[in-house]
Design a protein that fits this description.
Shape of chain B: elongated
Distance between the termini of chain A: 22 Å
Helix content of chain A: 25-40%
Strand order of the largest sheet of chain A: 5-6-7-3-8-9
Shape of chain A: elongated
Number of strands of chain B: 0
Oligomer: heterodimer
Structural class of chain A: alpha/beta
Order of helices and strands of chain A: EEEHEHEHHHEHEHEEHEHEEHEHE
Largest sheet of chain A: 6 strands, mixed
Helix content of chain B: over 70%
Largest interface: A-B, 47 and 37 residues
Largest sheet of chain B: none
Number of helices of chain B: 14
Structural class of chain B: mainly alpha
Chain lengths: 328, 263
């Protein structure tokens, strides 16, 4: 989806967040989200997703940088922004002793332009649970209640922090469908997730956060394309990496070696795979555990995570060989 | 599933507060522990005060059984129905992330705190009214010569206790520890603010110090409303002390109140 440059519903510039203990959770994050776009923030636990989203929701002022939601500062101009946003926190937020219906009625009374509570609960399939206390709901039902209340006021901007964590496969699909419908109706959605499938399926654009910084950003296709494809196999006995065809003509841009297993990275998968297999055929060797894999979001994500752990490993004096090339 | 556009109107502070108070009242009635402490303790405890004071002590202090028990009851009501109950409420709402969730919505911070506190505050005001009527009927307490002092004192007391409860909650990690962190103010107030022991029977220097405690001006004003022996100067002093504590605690809440659990 093309972003209209003049309609950035969310604009984040060089955002920083530092916690009381001095921990810098967000270290200079910039991105923007256009109207009617679904934007996903991906990252491992502790990457800074929730810390970032909370600044967008206006729950805390940033330590540095700038946030604009619908053209306003969500922290200092709370009264202007809040009636136009819907928020689903990562967890909890409802008194356990109230029923689903009482909770929805309370939120409806505090939400401008609220749709009828029954309608909001029906959107997430909770209409039969109205008289059940929140403490008796399953984890998935609580997520759905949270989503229903975030949708209560037909918000222009929706912040969903891990909306499908704890949901079963069916509930997850239903949530995705609902989010897509909202997007098609013009709602701007910012969501965080650690399900790659969710980001790949749902997001128009995404950013992968790592240690408080954006490690990769773009459409799912762009982020994937920036990542190399991979060929891995076990070296035949008696062979070393140096015995393989020269990497340059093969189109291989880097490799990792872990015991006997070699992992080649390439942006020209067809050429590299063909030449490698021809070489194996001519040499009369079998490449055990051969795995040829085109780039995926999962690969991109794992690679970003691995870069950090690889760095840690080499600092710890590990013997694993890592030949890195920076991918822009 | 379909996302149909709703037709609700823009919220007002009053409308938002009404919705929150309704939910909080439901929760207040469902929490049996808080309910018993808030409703019955202030009605029962004053009788222990009665047994601790002899009639001669009372006469020397210029008090009678009514002007002893009524201010004590109001003090117990403020401490149990408002202060202790609300420390628990604020901690519970914070730890269940209810406060954080509410702050993502349209309610302003002051509305969240006021709305959460209102059921307890109303309980205390109704209780005080019933106690005054009860004492008048059962203990032959006369019509107060200066009722405005009681009204001022009670309102100051309620606002102060709400703010002090919010402040105490900020230093309590769990609802269990809240029962401990709320003890110091309660004990100091029982003993030093004229609730269990009227200031009139304390040594002068101790009494002078005790006048500066947060709840003392509240009790002094309520008692003064019925005894009628508070000079204008004394009443003004009590009001100013009460105002100072209220302002200080409200300021402290704005500065230190915790909306989210510690990580």
């Amino acid at each position: 989806m093309e972003t209209n440059e003049h309609e950035h519903v969310i604009e984040v510039t060089d955002l920083r967040r530092v916690y009381g203990g001095g921990f810098e959770a967000v270290r200079g994050v910039s991105f923007s989200v256009g109207r009617g776009e679904i934007f996903a923030l991906l990252g491992t636990n502790g990457a800074g997703k929730t810390s970032t989203v909370e600044l967008l929701e206006g729950l805390a002022p940033p330590a540095g940088g700038r946030v604009r939601v619908l053209g306003h500062d969500p922290y200092t101009e709370r009264a202007v922004v809040r009636p136009r946003t819907g928020v689903m926190l990562q967890e909890g937020g409802f008194p356990s002793e109230l029923t689903v219906g009482e909770t929805a009625r309370m939120w409806a009374g505090c939400t401008s332009g609220a749709r009828p509570e029954a309608e909001a609960l029906a959107l997430v399939g909770l209409e039969r649970r109205t008289d059940v206390r929140v403490k008796q709901l399953s984890g998935g039902e609580r997520r759905r209640l949270d989503l229903a209340l975030a949708l209560l006021g037909n918000p222009e901007v929706l912040f969903l922090d891990e909306p499908t964590t704890g949901l079963d496969a069916e509930g997850r699909r239903a949530t995705w469908e609902l989010v897509r419908e909202l997007r098609d109706g013009g709602t701007t959605v910012l969501l965080t997730t650690h399900y790659l499938e969710e980001a790949e399926d749902l997001a128009d654009r995404l950013a992968i956060l790592h240690e408080g910084r954006i490690a990769a950003a773009g459409t799912p296709a762009e982020v994937t394309a920036s990542q190399p494809s991979r060929i891995s196999f076990e070296l035949p006995s008696g062979y070393f990496v140096g015995d393989l065809p020269a990497f340059g003509p093969l189109g291989v841009s880097g490799y990792e070696e872990e015991g006997r297993v070699v992992r080649l990275r390439t942006h020209e998968l067809q050429r590299a795979a063909t030449r490698l297999l021809v070489w194996a055929e001519e040499a009369g060797v079998t490449l055990r555990g051969l795995d040829v894999r085109s780039a995926s979001l999962e690969e991109a994500f794992l690679r970003i995570a691995r870069q950090a752990s690889g760095k840690d490993a080499s600092e710890a004096g590990s013997s694993s060989v890592v030949a890195e090339e920076r991918v822009a | 599933m379909s996302a149909v556009v709703g037709s609700g109107s823009t919220t007002t502070p009053a409308g938002r507060m009404r919705a929150l108070v309704r939910a909080e009242s439901t929760l207040f009635l469902r929490n049996k522990g808080t309910l018993v402490a808030a409703l019955f303790v202030p009605l029962v405890l004053p009788f222990s005060v009665r047994s601790a004071m002899s009639d001669t002590d009372l006469k020397e202090a210029g008090l009678n059984i009514g002007t002893l028990i009524l201010p004590a009851s109001v003090g117990f009501s403020l401490l149990f129905a408002v202060y202790a109950a609300l420390v628990g409420v604020f901690v519970a709402r914070r730890e269940e992330l209810v406060l954080k969730r509410l702050r993502t919505g349209e309610l302003r911070d002051i509305e969240i705190l006021t709305g959460s506190a209102l059921p307890a505050a109303v309980t205390c005001l109704v209780q005080s009214l019933l106690l005054a009527v009860g004492c008048a009927v059962l203990l032959d307490l006369d019509v107060p010569p200066a009722p405005q002092l009681a009204v001022i004192g009670l309102l100051l007391g309620v606002v102060m206790c709400v703010a002090l409860a919010a402040l105490t909650a900020s230093f309590s990690r769990t609802t269990e520890s809240a029962q401990v962190t709320s003890l110091p103010l309660m004990l100091v107030s029982f003993l030093g603010s004229g609730i269990t022991v009227p200031l009139e029977v304390l040594p002068d220097r101790l009494a002078t110090f005790c006048e500066l405690l947060p709840l003392t001006p509240v009790i002094t004003l309520v008692r003064g409303a019925w005894t009628g022996d508070l000079s204008g100067y004394e009443a003004l002093g009590a009001v100013l002390t009460g105002l100072a504590w209220t302002a200080l605690s409200v300021f402290a809440v704005r500065r230190w109140f915790r909306w989210e659990p510690r990580r």
